[in-house]
Amino acid sequence: xxxxxxxxxxxxAAYKAAELVRAATARGHSVRVIQTETxxxxxxxxxxxxxxxAPVLVDEFEQDPARGAFPGEPxxxxxxxxxxxxxxxxxxxxxxxxTANTLAKIxxxxxxxxVTTAALACRAxxxxxxxxxxxxxxxxxxxxxxxxxxxxxIRVVPPAEGRLASPGEWGVGRLAEPERILAVLEExxxxxxxxxxxxxxxxxxxxxxxxDLAGVRVIVTAGGTREPxxxxxxxxxxxxxxxxxxxxxxxxxxxxxxxxxGANLAVDPPAxxxxxPVVTVEDLAHALDERFAAAxxxxxxxxxxxxxxxxxxxxxxxxxxxxxVELEPTEDLxxxxxARRRPGQLVIGFAAExxxxxxxxAREKLRRKRLDAIVANDVSQPGIGFESADNAVxxxxxxxxxxxxxxxxxxxxxxxxxxxxARLRASVVLQSESR
Length: 435
Hints:
By secondary structure, this protein is α/β, with parallel strands linked by helices. The protein has 13 helices and 19 strands. The protein folds into 2 domains: 3-193, 3-Layer(aba) Sandwich (Rossmann fold), CATH 3.40.50.1950; 217-434, 3-Layer(aba) Sandwich (Rossmann fold). Its cofactor is Mg(2+); FMN.
């Protein structure tokens, strides 16, 4: 369990901070919240106090009833200075949402609120998750401030693209999803824990940091391939790459050496992976050919095009009469990998099915492609699968074991998938030892 201090700034995205607190406490972390005055216009103290079970502070001169203690800790016998005691006790300080104004203040070393004063006094890792209008996020001043923050060692979780606060407006600037922010926080916490252990300091393990894949070489494919039709058009799919990125993050936390082969990702790859960007099925096949032999586990989460145009036009096709496009099948990459894997190598397939008995179809693919396991989901169900932060899957393994997971966040699904990977690897080790 880690102690996380959360700073909440004013903005419509402040409601997501409550979701972040709920997710963090569900993972076993202890959370305290501080707010700016403006943030109270969007979310009141009572919301965070109900979730954390601890008082919320807004003003630097405000007395803290808990005397700087986090939930589950005994308060100190003296009455400390609240902002100094909270940051002295926390394992990480996260500001989400962080406004453009707050980013500028922290970058310049200003301390005119409890949130910014805590940032200046904090010696623990700091993570900021900005949220603002696209014009403000892309402004030269904001870009310079973000660069300054990174230079200072502050981890920035970039905003996502999507619908913004203004009616009908779409762009980059919406707060990253709470699970994404929490994943970065846990990554930062785990790195801090490893550094402390390396320096000979004592400390407990971060919740969720099981190291059962330490040293295991894992390849994760993610995103959706695109097959060109002409100079500007392509045939593709709606995969954002979120599931594969979640798998890469979860594998990193469990100690794996991760290579992420990303096809047209809509989300950032996690820090710490060997990231290989690709576009087409041919690109993906080439990247896998170069790296497959050295891998212990391959998780084929990418949505790979089943067909590509038989002819690709060099120029842009102009509007005119109807056009018939002939498609040819692409290579079945996962089946090819399974056919040439060495003993002990695991190849896990993914099947995005649409309605009907999708589990039966996944079982058939598992058998036909000779996979070690397959992860199936029904993308016809609203709220899961493509372009969603959540998923619901059925995992089917070669030994007949089946497990349903979700609906839940893709990071939670990734953890469950890696539990099965660890089980299958343990089975492989036992078989080899019994020979």
